[in-house]
Amino acid sequence: MASAAIPASAAAPALDKSERLLVTIAVMLAVLMQVLDTTIANVALPHMQASLGATQDSINWVLTSYIVASAIAIPISGWLADRVGRRKLMLWAVVGFTAASMLCAIATSLPEMVAFRILQGITGAFLVPLAQATLFDINPPEKHGQAMALFGGGVMIGPILGPVLGGWLTDSFDWRWVFLVNLPVGVLATVMLLRYMPTGEVRRRSFDLMGFALLAIALGSLQMFLDRGEQLDWFESWEIIAEAGLAIAFFWMFVVHTLTARDPIFEKSMFADRNFATGLLFMGVTGVLLLAGLALLPPLLQRLYGYSVLQSGILTAPRGVGTLISMLLAGRLIGKVDMRLLVAIGIVLMGASLWMMTGFALDQPAGPVIWSGIVQGLGLGLIFVTMQSLAFATLAPQLRTNAASLLNLSRNIGGSVGIALVGSQLVRNTQIAHADMASNVTSEIIPTVDPSLMERLGAQGGTLLSVIDAEINRQALFIAYLDDFKLMMILTFAALPLILLMRKGQASRGPHVVAD
Are 129 and 405 in contact (CB under 8 A)? Predict the structure, then answer.
């Protein structure tokens, strides 16, 4: 393997407390900017469509291009950080992401917007894994739990705040402000990184072009399959069949190549680490729960309860509050109690919150939404922070950037899979529930539905049937939402046995000490 090993001490730059704080603020500004952009543009799409002269189908490429570019770029963040240095790559990524955001803000056509979003996705892909690895390196082992709590706060709160901030900016100003808001954040992060971020070691290792090409095609095909599947009716479309086939074939070739190549894009020793391998699975589950839940709840609140975009954002905010509380608590407890116990408690809380959501009613007040959101946030925070610490607990320092990129890639893929799964199930279960209820509506029972309604509509049978069909549609959609919450609850509890595969990491003793 053509690389020079780094001593453990080289991965932990000697910074005083104030310098660590400033570096932490700088990298977290970059993280927040990137994770906000994964969801902030969603609510502005209708306004972009009119301004850019796009169709309903083509405007979705504004989101698809960003997701696919980011997925393809994430795997090479570790190699690039080794090759040019983490500080230099972080600066390039922040500057590139900020510049791409400005270009998106001044785009005048859909092709321009898609090209700039691809650039934004590529540069933004490096920010999260680089920030995570940096926080591990600048903090002593006993502070790793708190560092991951802070990192998790940015990653988990961003998707919750994104739609709210995007809706407010779009309604109050213009859709272009969704991208312009990145300018002051990016400039401040750049200045602070230039001044305070330490220069890390550079490792000279060859680039696995074959492995990257195989993985890029697999990830690009998978993201296209998940993003466009519902729109094209899944396997009724030859495009979706082709994308699924490419994803499976090239991922299989990538696995074989990684196992047999002398210098693969990801070091094989990472996958031999039991905690890290299990952590990858848990990050995928976390992505499903985080992003699939956010894909379900705001539309439910807006379509069936009549809340505005801003009001639905406020009702989902308690989930973020619960996340922050549990992350702060986890940061204090890591190293003092068995981290596997914290993960188990988080999974139980997450499952309990989804069980609470299966009991929603169409005529309920906001209380059940708020309380289930708080419980869900408490569970997500415990899972995310503790699992990050466990996954890194037994890895060598020089593997951290590569490991961080894989963990974030796993979370992103999990989120895409979760969104596609709950979306397709929502459509399918709505049709099933509608058919079940409509089969019981006959001409004999219609007069018994509501006598006062019959009197108001008189003999207008067509109008009456339209009213009944609209109510059936509403009830069927609500039942489908509840079914999706139940499905997510089952998936959550099904992940619980994975904890048995992990070893007990003791963060307070150092990053390499484990106990069975």
Answer: yes
505 phi and psi angles, rounded to 5 deg: -90, 135
Q: For 128-147, what is each residue's pLDDT tens digit?
A: 888 888 887 777 777 777 77
DSSP secondary structure string, 313-351? HHHHHHHHHHHHHHHHHHHHHBTTB-HHHHHHHHHHHHH
H or E element that contains 505: strand 504-505
| Torsion from C-alpha of 413, 414, 419, 424, nearest 10 degrees | 100
Give dist(CA 503, CA 391) in Å, integer.
10
Nearest to 384 by CA among 446, 438, 320: 320
Q: How high is the pLDDT of residue 510?
A: 39
The SS3 call for residue 107 is coil
Contact status, residue 231 vs residue 27, Cβ threshold 8 Å? no
CB neighbours of 74 closer than 8 A, spacing ≥ 6?
Answer: 125, 126, 129, 405, 408, 409, 412
What is residue 504's predicted lDDT score, i.e. its pLDDT? 65
Reported as half-sphere exposure (CB side, CA atoms, 13 A), residue 471 has a value of 10
The number of angstroms, rounded, from the C-alpha of 93 to the middle of its chain's C-alpha atoms is 19
448 alpha-carbon distance from chain centroid: 48
Q: What are phi and psi of 337, to 5 degrees?
A: -130, 165
Q: Angle at the Cα of 91 (from 86 to 96), degrees rounded to 5?
A: 125
What's the pTM value of the predicted model, to 2 decimals? 0.76
How far apart are the C-alpha atoms of 138 and 148, rounded to whole Å? 12
CA distance linking residue 133 with residue 127, whole number of Å: 10
- With cut-offs at 50, 70 and 90, classify the pLDDT of residue 250: very high
Dihedral in degrees, nearest 10, Cα atoms 262, 268, 269, 270: 150
Cα torsion for 134, 138, 140, 145, to the nearest 10°? -40
Task: State whether residue 117 is helix, strand or coil.
Answer: helix
Cβ atoms 294, 160 nearer than 8 A: yes
With beta carbons less than 8 A apart as the criterion, state whether 212 and 77 touch: no
Tokens 């006062």, residue? 452
Of 233, 208, 262, nearest to 420 by C-alpha is 233
- The mean of the pLDDT values for the chain is 79
CB atoms within 10 A of CB 494: 12
Rounded to the nearest angstrom, the gap between the alpha carbon of residue 392 and the centroid of all alpha carbons in its chain is 20
Residue 496, H or E segment = none
Are the beta carbons of 89 and 130 closer than 8 angstroms?
yes
Burial (CB count within 10 angstroms: exposed 0-12, middle 13-18, buried 19+), residue 201: middle
